[in-house]
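A quick aside before the break. I want you to see a complete sequence-to-structure record at least once, exactly as it would be stored in a machine-readable document. Don't worry about memorizing anything.
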Amino acid sequence: MVTLRVTVEDEQAEALKKLLGEVTFVKSIEEEHLTNDLIQEPEAPYMRIKRILDAAKGKNLFKDIEDPAEWQRQIRKEWDRDF
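That is the input. The structure line, written in tokens, reads:
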């Protein structure tokens, strides 16, 4: 028998447990919380995006882009490629 350890965000844990519960060859599901026993509210998508943007402030991530419209065109051209 093999034991697999998977780390997921708190918001996704319940969905993963349901999914694994439906798999016939999964023998047991154990849950371990990595937080300091503090109950955390799930982070809303808006708050997650805001936190990421706040962390990126002042890093000049897009300083090399002179023409944003042309930059977007180049990105879209990359999406149209056949692999």
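Two observations worth writing down. Residues 10-22 form the longest helix (13 residues). Residues 10-31+40-79 form one domain. We'll return to this after the break.
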